[in-house]
Automatic annotation (TrEMBL):
<dbReference type="GO" id="GO:0042254">
    <property type="term" value="P:ribosome biogenesis"/>
</dbReference>
<dbReference type="GO" id="GO:0005525">
    <property type="term" value="F:GTP binding"/>
</dbReference>
<keyword id="KW-0460">Magnesium</keyword>
<dbReference type="GO" id="GO:0005737">
    <property type="term" value="C:cytoplasm"/>
</dbReference>
<dbReference type="Pfam" id="PF01926">
    <property type="entry name" value="MMR_HSR1"/>
</dbReference>
<dbReference type="InterPro" id="IPR014100">
    <property type="entry name" value="GTP-bd_Obg/CgtA"/>
</dbReference>
<dbReference type="InterPro" id="IPR006074">
    <property type="entry name" value="GTP1-OBG_CS"/>
</dbReference>
<dbReference type="InterPro" id="IPR015349">
    <property type="entry name" value="OCT_dom"/>
</dbReference>
<keyword id="KW-0378">Hydrolase</keyword>
<feature type="domain" description="OCT">
    <location>
        <begin position="347"/>
        <end position="425"/>
    </location>
</feature>
<keyword id="KW-0963">Cytoplasm</keyword>
<dbReference type="GO" id="GO:0003924">
    <property type="term" value="F:GTPase activity"/>
</dbReference>
<dbReference type="InterPro" id="IPR006169">
    <property type="entry name" value="GTP1_OBG_dom"/>
</dbReference>
<feature type="domain" description="OBG-type G">
    <location>
        <begin position="159"/>
        <end position="331"/>
    </location>
</feature>
<feature type="binding site">
    <location>
        <begin position="190"/>
        <end position="194"/>
    </location>
    <ligand>
        <name>GTP</name>
    </ligand>
</feature>
<feature type="binding site">
    <location>
        <begin position="165"/>
        <end position="172"/>
    </location>
    <ligand>
        <name>GTP</name>
    </ligand>
</feature>
<dbReference type="InterPro" id="IPR036346">
    <property type="entry name" value="GTP-bd_prot_GTP1/OBG_C_sf"/>
</dbReference>
């Protein structure tokens, strides 16, 4: 079964907590702090698997979680770093963050490997917090939290030329005649359900990759049928080759077919028709009575710069001329693969994250913000040193100033998630 779009959950590993301990050995009853650091959590890594061409395996496994880092130990023992989690995907997979739809990565190259979400950094042990005035710190850092996201994986076929058209117009036959591809061919009144790729070499030695995009229908851009599943493969191609039934054997008008396909592509992504050159293959000329339709096609589209070439895929007529014209069009576009640039940005620091201060009752203030919540997640608030660090954070990030601007007075209560304390000037 061909699967080209899935939704999965990924979670990088949490960093291990730093350790609090003191050197206790014979003849050294009051040794200094020797708590070790926590290990790093596992990264989430995506890697291109050249032997895979479908996202089928993600139908059976949707949750991927890297291991957490090991906690630090006494005697300055560093916690073990967790192993990274490698997720293998087909070449051409575009990864998006599910909530925003922003592109996280485009794995378009063979062997490409991307660290998408790094594991949390391990917390520092108490050995790092000893000073001349504080020689026995009973405080350590917690490991940095894991990163977790829902992702959309979309497989967009990488091909130079995309064959587009209605079902049963001869796209699969054309691909089988000009390449090494072997698609199933019959007089179906339904469409091929999976794209087929073939490597084409014309008589002049020009080589390119051609993809048979499964037949489109009206309403595809709105998701009717399998429209979106098919249209996404058009985005990666460089040249569009429209295949139409010039004989009208299915009872459709070939001119109207071209306009209908163009409309669906434009509704899905207007940039496709703006950026990609097009050519029309008027197929099935071996069936006769095609002259009028071919003349209409040329009169309608050639003034717009879209060449119309009569062919017979089944009879191998004019196919080399078609391949020459396609190669000439390819020479006019950049040779590099079409790549979707990353749009997704992780919030790497908490200092820039917004927060809110609200007086919900007289003398009772509530402070909220993702940065504050995360900071509390890896700071030991219940220790004297940890709470001092927390107070410093509130001052440096402007939260104390914001409370004062909101009218807080000494003795008023501040609530920050699960923590409540009295404000003291």
């Amino acid at each position: 079964m061909f699967v080209d779009k899935v939704k999965i959950f990924v979670r990088s590993g949490k960093g291990g907590d730093g350790h609090v301990s003191f050197r206790r050995e014979k003849y050294v009853p009051n040794g200094g702090p020797d708590g070790g650091d926590g290990g790093r959590g596992g990264h989430i890594i995506f890697e291109v698997d050249s032997g895979c061409n479908t996202l089928m395996k993600f139908r059976h496994q949707r949750h991927f979680k890297a291991a957490d880092g090991e906690n630090g130990g006494k005697k300055r023992c560093h916690g073990k770093d967790a192993e990274d989690l490698i997720i293998k995907v087909p070449q051409g997979t575009v990864i998006r963050e599910a909530e925003t739809g922003h592109v996280v990565a485009d794995l378009h190259a063979a062997g490409q490997r991307e660290i998408l979400f790094k594991g949390g950094k391990g917390g520092r042990g108490n050995q790092h917090f000893a000073t001349a005035t504080r020689q026995a710190p009973r405080y350590s850092e917690k490991g940095k939290p894991a990163k977790e996201y829902w992702l959309i994986l979309e497989l967009k076929m990488i091909a130079d030329v995309g064959l587009v058209g209605y079902p049963n117009v001869g796209k699969s036959t054309l691909l089988s005649m000009v390449s090494n591809a072997q698609p199933k061919i019959a007089n179906y009144h339904f469409t091929t359900l999976a794209p087929n790729l073939g490597v084409v070499t014309n008589q002049y030695g020009k080589q390119f990759v051609m993809a048979d995009i499964p037949g489109l229908i009206e309403g595809a851009a709105e998701g009717i049928g399998l429209g979106h599943d098919f249209l996404r493969h058009v985005e990666r191609t460089k040249v569009l080759l429209h295949v139409v039934d010039a004989a009208g054997s299915e009872g459709r008008d070939p001119v109207e077919d071209i306009y209908a396909i163009q409309k669906e592509i434009e509704l899905f992504n207007p940039k496709i028709l703006e950026e990609k050159p097009q050519i029309i293959a008027a197929n099935k000329i071996d069936m006769g009575n095609c002259e009028e339709n071919i003349a209409r096609l040329k009169a309608e589209f050639e003034p717009k710069g879209i060449k119309v070439l009569p062919i017979s895929a089944a009879g191998n007529e004019n196919l080399q001329e078609l391949l020459k014209d396609v190669a000439d069009l390819l020479a006019t576009v950049p040779s590099e693969n079409i790549v979707f640039e990353p749009e997704f940005e992780e919030i790497s620091t908490m200092s820039n994250e917004p927060f809110t201060v609200e007086e919900v009752n007289e003398g009772y203030f509530v402070v909220e913000g993702h940065g504050i919540e995360r900071m509390m997640g890896y700071t030991a608030i219940d220790t004297e040193q940890g709470f001092a660090f927390f107070q410093k954070y509130l001052r440096e990030k402007g939260i104390i100033e914001a409370l004062e601007n909101a009218g807080i007075k000494e003795g008023d209560t501040v609530n920050i998630y699960d923590l409540e304390f009295d404000y003291v000037k």
